[in-house]
Amino acid sequence: MEVLDYHIKDKIGEGGFSEVFRAEKNGRDFAIKILRVPDGIAAEDVLSRMRYEFWVLKDLDHPHIVKVHDFGCLQDGRIFLVENFIAGLTLRNFCAQHPFPACEPALLGVLRGLKSLHEWNIVHGDLKIENILVAEEENDAIAKILDFGLARSLITPQSPLTSEGFSGTPA
Questions:
Q1: End-to-end distance of the chain based on CA atoms, in angstroms?
Q2: Which long-range contacts (C-beta less than 8 Å, at least 24 apart) are formed by 31-35?
Q3: In terms of pLDDT, which residue wins out, 171 or 39?
Q4: Distance CA 11, CA 19 (A)
């Protein structure tokens, strides 16, 4: 399967609204999130949510926030978002497999990423340990915040799917 110039290699995950695939372009790996439109939700709302996620992330370039590269619609109408591929574990799994001193750099990275988001007046909207991946790079634990589908800007109109007040994953 091809998405733009990206060659899909394999499925690496799925969530409530999307499937995530690893893809390759010019020798680099990327993650492509392809949205599923659940029954009872208008496709336009899902498109607005993904467009908003792309808008929130497109200009951010921070070592602890996933980098977004592209956004669009497939010929069959499904919506996709292309971001950096992160070979790592969720924060939960990383910390379960390592002693606290090894987790500390990742936790500090999350705080640095959140600080940067807040300096940009962006609220994540669904921050949880499953939305943080930790990659080990040169013996360092580098945390990356991802999944900004419920994010909102504090200085621009809210995303259509979060404008009614509450967002996030129920506890």
A1: 36
A2: 31/82, 31/83, 31/84, 31/85, 31/86, 32/3, 32/6, 32/8, 32/80, 32/81, 32/82, 33/80, 33/81, 33/82, 33/83, 34/3, 34/74, 34/78, 34/79, 34/80, 35/78, 35/79, 35/80, 35/81
A3: 39
A4: 7
| Residues 161, 48 contacting (CB under 8 angstroms) | yes
* pLDDT tops 80 at residue 18: yes
Is residue 136 within 8 Å of residue 93, measured between CB atoms? no
Whole-number pLDDT of residue 99? 94
**Catalytic center residues:** 126
Tokens of 169: 């994953």
CA atoms of 14 and 122, how far apart (whole Å) = 25
